Amino acid sequence: MTTWAIGDVQGCFEPLERLLAELGFDEAHDELWLVGDLVNRGPDSLGVLRCLYAMRQACRVVLGNHDLHLLAVAAGAEPMKKKDTFGDVLAAPDAGELLDWLRQQPLLHYDESRATVMTHAGIPPNWSLADARRLAGEVEDVLHGGDASAYFRAMYGNDPDRWDESLTGLDRLRVITNHLTRMRFIDARGALDLVSKEGTGTAPPGFRPWFEMPRRRAADVRIVFGHWAALEGRCDAENVEALDAGCVWGRELVALDLDTGERTACRCR
After folding, report:
1. Where are the beta strands (DSSP E) in 44-140?
2. Residue 268: pLDDT above 90?
3. What is the C-alpha to C-alpha distance for residues 20 and 232, in angstroms, rounded to an integer?
4. Each residue of 53-99: pLDDT tens digit?
């Protein structure tokens, strides 16, 4: 059995097919972790969801910001944007089945046997693993409940810009969501910069990549994340694995063998 973690697919179904073939992935024996952003920007979000749904028993998925946006649009809580490319999903005859499955996915997956945790954007330095699991669970309870429409309507926005345990209601859920699905740069006060998207050398004054902050409280577990395409799947921080190599931007879709550390990449055509 091999367990592979794969970076942001973002609707690039054809590269995903080629990568799985190159890995010799066997859903009867192997396991696939996906760091989120399964959909949007690429040409075939529907193909990606159908592929993963068909082998869902072998998949461990966490939600990314684009996945949450699709769910919000499907729920009527947010209009589609000009750059959105998931209209094929919304129009599909099996949309309900696929979207119900997607909405049931978590924001965080933890494998105690490997001391490895996966979220879309990482874990902020001021959260322990226990904090991250607890707070992800608060959002998951709402997502997996009967009506998440209020959450979807309030999900968008950059404020409050930092975590505070005293936060309540939809503000609390928005901040948790932003940390787990949109985070890149953070400052010593714990404030997020959710505007800058380029490489680590472009941090605004006073900010650093979250994984470069000293005394990270979750440094004792390996963190597998995606989201930050400008990193091109590379991160030098100890016990941190960046997997978004920008396939949707014409670069690579990357798979990491979680037991050996071997990486396999498939270039997007």
Report:
1. 59-61, 108-111, 116-119
2. no
3. 20
4. 999 999 999 999 999 999 999 999 999 999 999 999 999 999 999 99
- 8-state DSSP, 120: S
Q: Enter the DSSP assignment of 207.
A: E
Q: Is 219 helix (H, G, I), strand (E, B) or coil?
A: coil
Give the tokens for residue 245: 């190599």
122 backbone φψ class: left, alpha, beta (φ>0; ψ -120 to 50): left
- Burial call 93-128: b when 16+ CB within 10 Å, e when fewer: eeeeebbeebbebbbbbbbeeeebbbbbbbbbbbbe
Could you give the CA distance from residue 116 to residue 179 in angstroms, rounded to a whole number?
18
Percent of the chain topping pLDDT 90: 97
195 is in which domain, residue-wise?
3-267
CATH of the domain at 240: 3.60.21.10
Distance from C-alpha of 263 to C-alpha of 216, rounded to nearest angstrom: 25
Domain count, the chain: 1
Q: Cα–Cα–Cα angle for 36, 231, 209, nearest 5°?
A: 90
Q: How far does CA 186 lie from the centroid of its chain? A: 18
